[in-house]
């Protein structure tokens, strides 16, 4: 696996259809300043149209994943500068949340404030047994501004979200799993093996169904049930009409491994689904 430093604090690597982005700012526990935030947004924008990536693993370095925003940048900032940073944060986090690729956050250490918010933008969160997660902005007289009040609430419910946000307390790895914030915890030296194993399993699936499965769940949960059920069936009809759908059924009948979309990009799968849905109304 070859590493490419795409920014002084961002290291990108690729193995097959799985990309890894590591935030590398150990001296500040991965804290995000404006420059890193802009680089993350540019990366997300470029990844969106990457024809070879199906899964992204996002992780950190040392004791910190991302220990929040770089608070030193707030001190003495004007209201306009502060508001501009918050707009950039939202744009960056929204870019990660809306990626068509499946995203896995491997939380190796502290994921606080903006770090926790970035993790919440991912499809799966895996944690090191030494990880600490939280939204401590209340202790600064502030509140989360990168989606924490909304994404955490949708994940754990209003009462638990209020308890965490309004006290600013940290979650241990065990609590994160018990609360449904993370799917499992691993010893620190096993975290990336777990993330890479999950990524490989996901990357082997039919690319069209993978991307559409993410979309139908994320979009459907925000819609009324009847609307979401109709959306689910329209997507299924499009998948049945797709090359991947035909290949999967044929492989099952012929008792052989399927060969899904070997040359299919994310952009192509979305276009194919749109065409199929038009045919099926």
What's the short story on this structure?
With 281 residues, the protein is an alpha/beta fold. Helices cover 48% and strands 17% of the residues. It has helices at residues 34-48, 79-97, 114-120, 148-156, 158-167, 173-179, 191-203, 207-220, 225-240, 243-254, 266-279; strands at 2-7, 10-15, 18-23, 55-59, 64-66, 102-107, 110-112, 124-128, 132-134, 170-172, 184-186.
Radius of gyration: 20 Å
| Low confidence ranges | 262-269, 275-281
Main sheet properties:
7 strands, mixed
Rounded mean pLDDT score: 92
| Secondary-structure-derived class | alpha/beta
The backbone outline, from C-alpha atoms, is: globular
One letter per element, helices H and strands E, the order comes to EEEHEEHEEHEEHHEHEHHHHH
What proportion of the residues is helical, as a percent range?
40-55%
Strand content: 15-25%
The number of helices is: 11
Kindly report the spatial arrangement of strands forming the biggest sheet: 1-2-3-4-6-8-11
In angstroms, what separates the terminal alpha carbons? 44 Å
Count of individual beta strands: 11
Topology:
Elements: E1 2-7, E2 10-15, E3 18-23, H1 34-48, E4 55-59, E5 64-66, H2 79-97, E6 102-107, E7 110-112, H3 114-120, E8 124-128, E9 132-134, H4 148-156, H5 158-167, E10 170-172, H6 173-179, E11 184-186, H7 191-203, H8 207-220, H9 225-240, H10 243-254, H11 266-279
Helix pairs in contact: 1-2, 2-3, 4-5, 8-9, 8-11, 9-11
